[in-house]
Amino acid sequence: MDRIEKNFKYFLDKYGDIYEAYENYGQKVHNEGGPLDEKTRWLIKASISAACKHHYSVRTHIRKALKHGCTREEIEHALMLVAPTAGFPAFMEALMCLREELDDNAL
């Protein structure tokens, strides 16, 4: 178990009911909040995480995007859209996360 999982487990053990409410809200917004399809929602979430420089969430959202049918090219494009809005460094850090998640041998 890595440090992120340990921290999350600590939070769940101590504040499980609060997390449950948070998770229910997030699921409701994700699934019933509007007309966007599943893939688009995950691409947006990956991009928002990248723009906010939340590297752990970038990785999580990349994994979920891949799980829900997004291609590497779609994810890269969504992340590239971060550069002109939130900055090139934010995009480059998110791109590194994507490459590491895909075990890119070029790193």
Describe this structure in words.
The chain has six helices and no strands. Helix 2 runs antiparallel to helix 3, helix 2 packs across helix 4 (72-80) and helix 3 (55-67) crosses helix 6. It has 107 residues and is mainly alpha-helical. The relative contact order is 0.11. Helix content is 79%, strand content 0%. It folds into two domains: 1-34, no CATH class; 36-107, AhpD-like, CATH 1.20.1290.10. It is globular, with a radius of gyration of 15 Å.
Q: In CATH's first tier, which class of the largest domain applies? A: Mainly Alpha
Low-pLDDT segments: none
Element order: H for helix, E for strand:
HHHHHH
How many beta-strand segments? 0
